[in-house]
Amino acid sequence: MEDKINVLISEEDLKNRIAELGEQISRDYAGKEIHIISVLRGGVFITTGLSNCITVPVTIDFMSVSSYGNGTNTSGNVLIKKDLEDDIEGKDVLIVEDIIDSGVTLSKLIPMLKQRKPASLKICTLLDKPDRREADVKVDYIGFKVPDKFVVGYGLDYQQKYRNLTYIGEIIV
Ligand code: IMP
Ligand code: MG
Question: What is d(CA 15, CA 26) in angstroms, rounded to the nearest whole number?
Fold first, then answer.
């Protein structure tokens, strides 16, 4: 059975905002190269859209992580399911995420990556759900703030479905 989905952020609004982020990031990294760490699986979609709009040289690597321990609790830990291919030492690293919800995953991942001595480490997320934050994470680039609703599309899934939608929507139950 197909679910009904209500559009929250249209394809055009996503495209325009991602282009703005790309311009801002290109200005901020002028004269540098950006090493993007795309967080699988959802981060792939924003990574391609965003990197198309970045004008400084870009390299891209992928990582897959999951929180474990106490579920979404801040005392949980993060498991690396797929590690990076390349060293990040000395690189200007930009983590690209689909959504920051509790912030637990990133709050665990960031110190682990800092141990690998990147020259800098910033975070870009397509969506931010600030109402749900449990762990303190400093996010440098945010596409859109969204309310405390479960959203799908443009990389975000519900039971692994709907990542391929060109817009962000809410499943109507
Ligand atoms: P957190 O910030 O550690 O809570 O982790 C956020 C992760 O939970 C994201 O990378 C998504 O995989 C997932 N997630 C959180 N909110 C949503 C949502 O509204 N729709 C789909 N996935 C979500
Ligand atoms: Mg994710």
Answer: 16
DSSP state of 27: H
- Residue 151 to residues 92, 99, 101, Cα–Cα distance (Å): 30, 10, 11
**Mean of the per-residue pLDDT values of the chain:** 93
Partner residues linked to 156 by β-bridges: 153
Q: Which residues pair with 110 in a beta bridge?
A: none
| Residue 128 near residue 137, CB atoms below 8 Å | no
Domains of the chain: 12-148 (3.40.50.2020)
Cα–Cα distance, 103 to 91 (Å, whole number): 24
Q: Quick one: which atom of ligand 1 is closest to the CA of 129?
A: 16
Entry pTM: 0.94
Distance CA 40, CA 98 (A): 9
The answer to whether the CB of 165 is under 6 A from ligand 1 is no
Q: pLDDT tens across 92-109, in order?
A: 999 999 999 999 999 999
Give the residue numbers annotated as catalytic, written as ranges.
Answer: 101
Name residue 85's amino acid: E
